[in-house]
Write a structure and sequence with these properties.
5-stranded antiparallel beta sheet; about 25% helix; rod-shaped
Length: about 130
């Protein structure tokens, strides 16, 4: 390479001794007042977050769940594995989760199944029950 500035290409930039070099964070902070749409990134992330639709159960599936709930109410301390739907607090939909444990109480008035670990599941959130 033979160019006009070859003699200075590999030299480091001379910083004046009276000024410290600014960190990237400090430099970025200078421009933060110009962010016209603060919070816009958070809104985009929330919109992109995936949620599941609540599954619609058939009458047969509901009947099977009711039979197993009846079995749990008559036989105390059965170990169960539940597939449940949990509503999302921020947007429409939710997620499907698995919960497992010893069934300790079934409250028909409140429509709630209690597990030994303190987890409580409303009947309408149950998608399936497996008695282990």
């Amino acid at each position: 390479m033979s160019g006009r500035y070859d003699d200075i290409m590999d030299m480091s930039y001379p910083y004046p001794s009276r000024h410290q070099r600014m960190s990237r964070k400090e430099r970025a902070a200078q421009f933060s007042p110009f962010a016209a749409l603060t919070g816009y990134g958070d809104i985009i992330e929330e919109e992109a977050r995936h949620v599941d639709e609540r599954p619609m159960l058939s009458d047969d599936e509901k009947a099977i769940i009711n039979e197993k709930l009846q079995m749990i109410s008559t036989h105390h301390s059965l170990h169960v594995r539940l597939t449940c739907f949990s509503e999302d607090s921020l947007k429409r939909g939710g997620k499907i989760t698995l919960k497992e444990g010893q069934a300790t109480k079934l409250d028909k008035e409140k429509g709630t199944l209690y597990l030994e670990s303190g987890i409580r599941v409303h009947f309408e959130d149950i998608i399936s029950i497996e008695i282990i």
